[in-house]
Amino acid sequence: MIFLITDTHIGHDKLEKSGQRPEGVSELILEHWQETVRPEDTVIHLGDVAFHSEMQLGRVMAMPGRKILVRGNHDAKSLTQYMERGFAFACDSFTMRLEGIDILFSHHPTYGHTADVNIHGHQHDLHMDDRSRIYLPLALEYDNYYPIALDRYLLRLLRSWVDRKHIPTEKEILAVHERAAQGYVRE
To answer: Is the pLDDT of residue 22 over 80?
Structure first.
């Protein structure tokens, strides 16, 4: 199984102190990761992993699953350094073909992308500035801090958007997050 997560910001206390995230959110994120992801799963992290600390990064690396990093604006190490610390692969963006659709994974939304869908993080909300292409913005704040399964359900949904050339509404994107917020139940 492939899971998606973004903007974990493990150890970034300022997000809690400012009220942007609940107290103890780093522990909640890691707890939900632990209960959702198995060692044989792959986790695509869309950036902003941990707050400038080897210890905090180590907490993420101790979580189950093979980890791929799409580096975010708060990920200051080189790609090689992230791979040396345990990521199976680190990059600034990549495209994967699944279920016949090209999915671009990036930290920031990639305006003007040529993939079928751009799945990204960074914004911490679900707004889309470019309504001419298909985007799926991810934000932990909307999925109860759970990883999102890139499972058959989500792939079929993405496929339906692509086939119909349908730009999803915020309500449709929110429904993806609400499903994830329940925690993943394996089929």
So the answer is: no
